[in-house]
């Protein structure tokens, strides 16, 4: 008999009848287990939410105060007949894999995850299981992410090469912006970094949870001359709008795993692509499956077909899930 028959993947999320709860539902539900705070996984309006304290804090910022039940990494709770625990996913602050134990079987819902070191969040922890539900955002062999420090060095080299300009870095507001800032600090870049207002609240939240981002200043109202030779962070939507026109001839950069695709960089009018992803690349996805060695792999929100085919070639039973509402997030 196939494992995981007590799990019901539905278009709006993963339903667990024995717990009467949903994992990352895209519609309001009475009971939701949430892997992390990105909007395509964490929605407002649920009757009750179980998540890590950090994820609940992110949801409070985005949606208002939640009916939240904080679950620390490694803590086990019981809903109905299911034992549930949260372990780090390495994606963003507070991100978790949700481990479900029932009837002698274990299912791990990974949410989004990466295997690279990230100084802003806890590292991914592999968990042996019967069914591993994996993302496949970058589930094609073409996606092999470069070394993080090489990409940060590229950003700093551009800044030094043209000190009369600023480098405007587009980065997703949750996770990516804070990671870029912290990676620069790790490399010894201690100058003030200027922020678009849309990034301020989540940067403040990271700092409140112990992530040292160094000196951050609002970019609004700052004279153009003061921003020359500086790094300015903004959401991707601000890269080419009216807001950016007040900057001193910006070198437009974007931090995203999708910058591997040249056409995406051209479409965004990005002068300096920074290939930096908060998702596992192809090698990391496949290595994780081999390390965990589940009886079955369920693949979701991404390039499912290639990963399912890879599993089949290795006699690993796999299937694609058709979940709705999961997006690329400007990774």
From TrEMBL:
Keywords, ordered alphabetically: Exonuclease, Hydrolase, Ligase, Nuclease
Entry annotated with the keyword Ligase: yes
GO molecular function: exonuclease activity; ligase activity
Enzyme Commission (EC) number: 3.1.-.-
UniProt keyword Ligase present: yes
InterPro entries: MBL, RibonucZ/Hydroxyglut_hydro, Xnuc_lig_assoc
PANTHER family registered for this protein in UniProt: BLL1145 PROTEIN, CLEAVAGE AND POLYADENYLATION SPECIFICITY FACTOR FAMILY MEMBER
NCBIfam families attached to this UniProt entry: Xnuc_lig_assoc
Protein name from the UniProt record: Ligase-associated DNA damage response exonuclease
Phylogenetic placement of the source organism: Bacteria, Pseudomonadati, Pseudomonadota, Alphaproteobacteria, Sphingomonadales
């Amino acid at each position: 008999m196939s494992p995981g028959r007590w799990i019901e993947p539905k278009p709006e999320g993963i339903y667990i009848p024995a717990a009467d709860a949903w994992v990352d539902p895209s519609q309001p539900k009475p009971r939701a287990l949430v892997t992390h705070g990105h909007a395509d996984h964490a929605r407002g309006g649920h009757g009750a939410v179980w998540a890590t304290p950090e994820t609940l804090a992110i949801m409070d910022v985005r949606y208002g105060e939640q009916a939240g039940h904080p679950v620390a990494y490694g803590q086990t709770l019981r809903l109905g007949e299911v034992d549930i625990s949260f372990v780090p996913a390495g994606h963003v602050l507070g991100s978790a894999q949700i481990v479900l134990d029932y009837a002698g079987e274990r299912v791990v819902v990974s949410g989004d995850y990466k295997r690279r070191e990230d100084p802003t969040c806890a590292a991914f922890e592999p968990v042996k299981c019967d069914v591993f539900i994996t993302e496949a955002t970058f589930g094609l062999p073409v996606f092999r992410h470069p070394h993080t420090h090489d990409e940060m060095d590229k950003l700093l080299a551009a800044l030094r090469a043209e000190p009369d300009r600023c480098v405007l870095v587009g980065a997703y507001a949750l996770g990516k912006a804070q990671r870029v800032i912290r990676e620069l600090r790790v490399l010894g870049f201690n100058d003030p970094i200027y922020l678009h207002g849309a990034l301020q609240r989540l940067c403040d939240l990271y700092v409140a949870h112990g992530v040292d981002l160094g000196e951050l200043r609002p970019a609004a109202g700052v004279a153009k001359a003061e921003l020359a030779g500086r790094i300015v962070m903004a959401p991707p939507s601000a890269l080419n709008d009216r807001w950016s026109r007040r900057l001193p001839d910006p070198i437009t950069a974007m931090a995203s795993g999708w910058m591997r695709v040249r056409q995406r960089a051209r479409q965004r009018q990005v002068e300096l692509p920074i290939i930096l992803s908060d998702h596992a690349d192809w090698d990391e996805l496949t290595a994780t499956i081999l390390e965990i060695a589940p009886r079955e792999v369920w693949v979701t929100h991404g390039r499912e077909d290639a990963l399912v085919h890879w599993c089949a070639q290795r006699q690993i039973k796999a299937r694609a899930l058709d979940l709705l509402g999961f997006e690329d997030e400007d990774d």
